[in-house]
Amino acid sequence: MRVSLFFSLLAAATTAFSQYDHRKAYQLEAGTWIENFAPRGSSWYTRLTRIDRPEVLEVDPAHQHGGPRTIYTFPDATNATGITELSTDRYAVLTLNQVDDATTVSIWMLDTSGAQPSANKVIENIGGSELLNGLAAVTSDIVFTTDTLVGGVYRIDLQTGTADKVLSGDSFGPGVNGLRYDEPYLYYTNTNEGVFGRVEVDPITGAPAGEAEVLVSGEILVGVDDFALAYWTEAAFVANFYKNTLVRVNINEGTAEVVVEGIPAPTSATFATSGGLYVSTSGTGGDEGASIWSVTVPDETFVS
Ligand SMILES: *[C@@H]1O[C@H](CO)[C@@H](O)[C@H](O)[C@H]1NC(C)=O
User: Minimal CA–CA distance to 121: which of 164, 165, 151, 156?
Assistant: First the structure.
């Protein structure tokens, strides 16, 4: 009895001080660039996009079915950017079609429920946008996306096929990048400004319902891309593309700390449905191709 109490106290102390162990889980071929993960949702698989090609991949976080594999290639497109789960095995995905100097930005609904995934284009060209990037679903019909080149955040209604720029200026200017939703807040990053912030939106209509709030800003966040929201506590794990770091933002405290160094040019992060944090890279950080890293978050407490 006394012995087991001793060991459980020891275990608790070790957990609190242990490192954010990280290791490369998968290396993709040269020339690949993983742009984003669909955030932890209800599917067993983790789905992700490549920006060097118009592709969606999936990976089984339990490693039982091999490494990442392409499950869908969009026609009439050159790149895939944002991806978000709408409901089980239904996703919204953004693509670019870059031909000569013109870019067409489209949004699709991708159905991965069958043996052969299929997609239908909801909006052919989102007028005025140049590089729609982060994507977050508020409901199964309403998604938000950032324009990293021009600045601004669009609200897209997938039922009516309409897109409206609803947030702009200040930290929503050029560089606005990652987006995740955790009711009632839409969380965002700005690469250029080094900002992690949030804005409240109506959980049914998606209408912005308050002023944007910068939670943390500063040099530690200059270069940040996409991020994962923790599901057991108020924290975000943000990929800093420029600095090769993973930064933990403690939302309630308004603090940020580097928890992992040395992931080359990381682009995004997600928790798997079964737990565990994964970080993707662009393959531009000297590792010859995109990679997926597994990171142990010491205080992660599995909640289904
Ligand atoms: C889109 O894909 C093409 C072809 O791989 C590539 O040359 C271009 O840089 C990509 N665009 C972006 C924004 O990554």
Answer: 156
Confirm or reject: Cβ of 78 under 6 Å from ligand 1.
yes
Q: Provide the sign of the torsion angle of the four alpha carbons 243, 152, 80, 159, taken in this order.
A: positive
What domains does the chain contain, in order, with CATH numbers?
22-295 (2.120.10.30)
Contact 105, 129 (CB under 8 A): yes
Phi, psi of 90 (to 5 degrees): -130, 130
Question: What is the per-residue pLDDT across 27-39, written as a single tens digit (0 to 9) for each?
Answer: 999 999 999 999 9
Question: What tokens appear for 13 in the block?
Answer: 């102390």
Q: From the CB of residue 257, how many other CB atoms can be counted at a distance below 10 Å?
A: 10
Ligand 1 pocket, 79 CB below 6 A? yes
Q: Residue written as tokens 């009516």?
A: 160
Q: pLDDT by residue (tens digit) across 109-164?
A: 999 999 999 999 999 999 999 999 999 999 999 999 999 999 999 999 999 999 99
Q: Point out the ligand 1 atom lying closest to the alpha carbon of residue 131.
A: 13
